[in-house]
Amino acid sequence: DIARSPFQSNLDLIKTDGQPSFGAAAGAPVNLVMFSDFQCPYCQKEAVELRKNIPAAFNDKVRVFFMDFPLTQIHPWAMKASIAGRCTYRANQNAFWEYHDWIYQNQKDVTPETFDAKFQEYAKQKGLDALQLGRCMEDKTAAADVEKNMALGHALQVSATPTLFLNGRKLEGGVEWPILQQLLQIEIDHRAAEAKVASAAPAKQDDSCCTVNIPTLAGGAK
Question: Of the candidates 20, 54, 70, 89, which has an alpha carbon nearest to the alpha carbon of residue 166?
């Protein structure tokens, strides 16, 4: 079925409601979903590229969604960082991306022992309610949000970070911006061509013009 995406099985699984996002408005022709780990250096590099280049090159065409996928076996503070991100998002959705950029910028300076203090200091600097965020960190609700994203990643067979899904197409590992830019443009052009074909399709024939109503005479004769 050429009208069906070859990545439909992925699209059927991916749910982006309630996930942090930036870029084009809802309903953009291209959705880029990133499964990421705040302690992963490759994720940090990918995040910087996306945050810098997507708004500049595709601000009205591409929407980027962030999904938590902390690799807890090798990154000891990644889970805590994801929970902190979820708490920030719950407190103020617009503040999430500031936190996202801050944690990646300070990635090398964070340790399992210093994360809590650094996060509290960051919250105070940004005028966030540090006490509320601290309570959220201890609550299981934000952790459940992270675990839900991790379960979705496992269902999509994500095994490394970063992993991107470009309108359902899986791109595993870091993708250099020139290559990703080409892939995004190809998908944008493809969507535009589909829309053009759909708008040029002939309208369904209206058969009502060919209906003849014959009046019934008295007595039932015609």
Answer: 54
